[in-house]
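User: Before I run my own analysis I want an independent prediction to cross-check against. Here's the chain; please return only the structure tokens and, at the end, one sentence I can use as a sanity check.
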Amino acid sequence: MRLIVGLDRPTGGDATIGGVHYADLPRPLRVVGALLDAGAAHKGRSAYDHLLYLSQTQGIARRRVDEVLDLVGLHDVAHERAGSFSLAISVGAIVRHAAGGIAGIIAFVLVLAPLTQLIPGSTGDHVFAYLPTSAGQLMVNARQGPDDLLTPWQGFGVMCLWTVALMLLANYLLWRRDA
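Assistant: Structure tokens:
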């Protein structure tokens, strides 16, 4: 996609749209719509406002904004700030690839958590208690179990800290790479 919109140069051949380079299109967003980095949208602006701004600069009808939001399944959250979207967007922004973000989360949950149980002594139990998977399970429980190191409220706090840490890391990396 980066080749098609002219952000990268192909090592061979030509990347055109209907035989025309993206930069030579009079109103390129009327022909090609691309979201190359979900984290690039302004965090204080809603998805609706972001698309409305783009449509107005390209002479696209306002009704098309609703059509696109319906098409991509964002109609229900169209007026929420982009900064309030899911934690997965933060992970995807960190690794700069949505599939890489999903694979990273799966590896973290399915590989790291069980490996902490192999750490000898109570150290493994303490590390495991502060992982998001364990903290999430504690949040669901109404009462602290006899073997739980944290209370449900402490589990909630751990989840909040993980969320804030990932969002701060994603924000920093986006600022450093894309500013």
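Sanity check: The chain has seven helices and no strands.
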